[in-house]
């Protein structure tokens, strides 16, 4: 195709998969856009970033600024939820080119009568597009540019800043080149900053051995709120299958009274739109959700697309399952784990449209009950395009809904789920323990294109994962892991009572909890307080008060001279809140080192005083040098400093 434009636009960033995947932001975040923009020869080019929200008809425009090597940069702010579109536009600016050229000739003491006449023609092209005051000024210039007796005044005005501003403000765009369009999806702020607490409602009873109810959970809500958690995640609350029900400790033969796995969904009492009868009624659940909201907590539900053998779907929709020649369905497996109590969905079913419709209606059902956050179980075992479709359908009607992908799997699989629309993702943080591992992983999350579409959520533990480094670990290890999660990532979560009470007995040789709560009722002293609960609460409060911890990507690791000390600097978007975190990775011994503060990023020089305030202990220190000594003990293995300049 013939293209007469002299402008080339390439290497636009950010973009994912050539623009087929939208990047992600939250409300009030900035999108920084760069592009290489070139023209032949030496003419002056101009380039603009154009953007608009899906609800807007006209484009907003911001002129891009050159950096180096033909790269240009500009930014815009996402002020509301939903889709934004952006693109790059470039053109040779003949007016600015004229002004630049005539200025060089004047500086060389050349006569520019002909050039002034050319300038008058350029002014006539825009004189009817400007304001009244600007129009009066341009008409005056046209007159003196054509009057040889006004030559001295004309050459002065021809290179004036005032005229330059008018040319920039009212460009005459000829043979414009425009890039492809790219999209940003903007979520509410909770997509970027959330603090999750997980417990099983059936273990909420005050009486040991008694099945807990939603009403029992009410007494626990104030404690969860006081500890600083804003999201309360419940594992599945649906009826639990009775056929092939799991017994305690994941045994395949359930005894009388065994409650089974909450993920074995469906029985004679109903399926995914029903509530396990021992938990209470739908009204009880709605009351709990509303009470939590009053305390600033959102209840997150588990969305697990699978079925127990006695789920109503099995009889009502047999085509949704893959039947073997012997008339059975192969139970679910995730080697080496086996789920004899679960039948996987057959996603290649000819009846897939009704299957997808039911899955969507299930989400809408619970959204209508007040749920806006879903933790999705094993999404990597379902088709990617299904997730893209269902998340899009939900977001069209309910843009506040958020989805957390529970997919501990291969990196590119996790990336694809994020690209399909998942709001947040579980991560490998659970296993990253050494300084090298942590820094390498954080750089992968925050310094590559992953930062544009994948929001990590750091969990030190889950009901499925009792990591080796927590098995038999001292209190300081739990403090260290929570401090790492909470300061590295803006989205975090814990499997609450087990973590805070340091319950760590494993199945020998495995990263699984012995006598796991997944298969039985547990009884906790819910109001037990210890150093872990105190410091979790304090760290959560610090996160709420400091915007630098409410985002993940603005992070720079600092030299410490000690592999057992990790230090990093974080800042908010406006750089009005800056923090410095130092954490000891040694759970048993004291560690010391010298921290190299980022003086250039802080805008200070060596010898200039800064005050660092420890937000946990409230101690303050004055630092004058680029390198500063720090010592940490296992009893309190971290400093969380606010930087005051």
Report on this model:
With 645 residues, this protein is α/β, with parallel strands linked by helices. 28% of the residues lie in helices and 23% in strands. It has an 8-stranded parallel β-sheet. Strands 2, 4, 5, 8, 9 and 10 form a 6-stranded mixed β-sheet that branches. Strand 18, helix 13 and strand 19 form a beta-alpha-beta unit. Helix 1 (94-107) packs antiparallel against helix 2 (113-126), helix 2 packs antiparallel against helix 3 (132-145) and helix 10 (352-368) runs parallel beside helix 11. It is globular and about 110 Å long. The mean pLDDT is 97.
Range of strand content: 15-25%
Q: Specify Rg, calculated over alpha carbons.
A: 31 Å
Structural class: alpha/beta
Cross-sheet strand order for the largest sheet: 19-18-17-16-13-12-11-20
What is the rounded distance between the termini?
A: 58 Å
- What is the number of strand segments? 28
Largest sheet report: 8 strands, parallel
Tally the helices: what do you get? Answer: 17
- Give the CA-based shape: globular
Mean pLDDT: 97
The percentage helix is 25-40%
**Runs with pLDDT <50, length 5+?**
none
Describe the structure concisely.
The chain has 645 residues and is of the alpha/beta class. Helices cover 28% and strands 23% of the residues.
Sequence-ordered SSE layout with sheet pairings:
Blueprint: E1 7-13, E2 23-26, E3 30-39, E4 45-53, E5 60-63, E6 65-66, E7 71-77, E8 82-92, H1 94-107, H2 113-126, H3 132-145, H4 151-158, H5 161-169, E9 177-178, E10 182-187, E11 194-198, H6 214-217, H7 221-226, E12 231-234, H8 282-294, E13 298-303, H9 312-316, E14 332-334, E15 337-339, H10 352-368, E16 373-377, H11 384-397, E17 402-406, H12 411-419, E18 424-426, H13 435-447, E19 456-457, H14 475-488, E20 491-495, H15 496-500, H16 531-545, E21 555-558, E22 565-571, E23 578-584, E24 591-596, H17 599-602, E25 610-614, E26 620-623, E27 627-632, E28 638-644
Parallel strand pairs: 2-10, 11-12, 11-20, 12-13, 13-16, 16-17, 17-18, 18-19
Antiparallel strand pairs: 1-3, 3-7, 4-5, 4-8, 6-7, 8-9, 8-10, 14-15, 21-22, 22-23, 23-28, 24-27, 25-26, 25-28
Helix pairs in contact: 1-2, 2-3, 10-11, 14-16
């Amino acid at each position: 195709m013939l293209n007469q434009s002299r402008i080339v636009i390439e290497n636009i960033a950010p973009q994912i998969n050539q623009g087929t995947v939208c990047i992600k932001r939250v409300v009030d975040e900035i999108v920084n856009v760069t592009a290489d923009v070139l023209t032949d020869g030496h003419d002056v080019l101009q380039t603009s970033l154009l953007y608009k929200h899906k609800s807007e008809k006209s484009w907003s425009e911001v002129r891009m600024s050159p950096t180096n090597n033909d790269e240009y940069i500009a930014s815009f702010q996402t002020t509301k939820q939903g889709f934004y579109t952006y693109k790059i536009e470039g053109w040779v600016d003949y007016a600015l080119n004229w002004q630049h050229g005539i200025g060089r000739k004047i500086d060389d003491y050349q006569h520019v009568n002909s050039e002034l006449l050319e300038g008058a023609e350029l002014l006539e092209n825009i004189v009817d597009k400007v304001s009244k005051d600007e129009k009066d000024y341009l008409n005056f210039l046209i007159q003196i540019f054509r009057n040889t007796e006004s030559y001295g005044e004309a050459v002065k005005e021809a290179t004036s800043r005032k005229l330059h501003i008018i040319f920039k403000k009212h460009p005459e765009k000829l043979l414009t080149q425009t890039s492809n369009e790219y999209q940003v999806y903007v979520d509410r702020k909770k997509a970027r900053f959330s603090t999750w607490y997980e417990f099983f409602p059936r273990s909420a009873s005050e009486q040991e051995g008694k099945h807990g109810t939603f009403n029992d959970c009410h007494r626990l809500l104030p404690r969860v709120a006081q500890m600083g958690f804003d999201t309360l995640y419940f594992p599945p609350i649906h009826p639990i299958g009775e056929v092939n029900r799991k017994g305690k400790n994941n045994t395949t033969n359930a005894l009388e009274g065994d409650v089974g796995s909450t993920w074995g969904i469906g029985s004679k009492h109903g399926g995914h739109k029903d509530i396990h009868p021992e938990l209470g009624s739908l009204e009880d659940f709605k009351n709990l959700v509303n009470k939590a909201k009053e305390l600033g907590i959102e209840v997150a539900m588990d969305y697990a697309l699978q079925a127990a053998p006695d789920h109503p779907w099995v009889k009502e929709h047999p085509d949704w399952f893959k039947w073997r020649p012997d008339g059975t369905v192969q139970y679910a497996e995730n080697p080496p784990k086996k789920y004899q109590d679960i039948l996987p969905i057959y996603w290649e079913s000819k009846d897939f449209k009704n299957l997808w419709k039911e899955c969507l209606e299930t989400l809408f059902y619970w959204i209508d009950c007040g749920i806006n956050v879903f933790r999705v179980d094993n999404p990597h075992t379902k088709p990617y395009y299904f997730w893209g479709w269902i998340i899009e359908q939900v977001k069209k009607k309910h843009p506040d809904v958020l989805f957390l992908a529970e997919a501990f799997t291969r990196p590119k699989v996790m990336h694809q789920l994020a690209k399909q629309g998942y709001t947040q993702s579980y991560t490998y943080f659970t296993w990253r323990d050494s300084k090298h591992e942590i820094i390498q992983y954080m750089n992968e999350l925050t310094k590559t294109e992953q930062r544009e579409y994948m929001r990590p959520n750091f969990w030190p533990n889950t009901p499925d994962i009792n990591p080796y480094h927590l098995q038999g670990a001292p209190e300081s290890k739990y403090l260290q892991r929570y401090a790492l999660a909470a300061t590295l990532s803006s989205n975090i979560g814990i499997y609450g009572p087990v973590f805070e009470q340091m319950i760590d007995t494993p199945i020998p040789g495995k990263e699984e909890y012995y006598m796991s709560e997944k298969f039985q009722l547990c009884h906790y002293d819910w109001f037990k307080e210890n150093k872990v609960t105190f410091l979790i609460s304090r760290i959560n409060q610090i996160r709420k008060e400091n915007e630098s911890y409410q985002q993940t990507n603005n992070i720079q690791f600092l030299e410490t001279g000690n592999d057992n000390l990790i230090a990093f600097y974080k800042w908010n978007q406006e750089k009005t809140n800056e923090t410095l975190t130092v954490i000891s990775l040694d759970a048993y011994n004291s560690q010391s080192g010298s921290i190299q503060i980022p003086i250039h990023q802080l805008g200070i020089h060596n010898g200039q005083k800064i005050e660092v305030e420890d937000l946990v202990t409230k101690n303050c220190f004055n630092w004058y040098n680029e390198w500063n000594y720090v010592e940490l003990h296992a009893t309190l293995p971290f400093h969380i400093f606010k930087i005051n300049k």
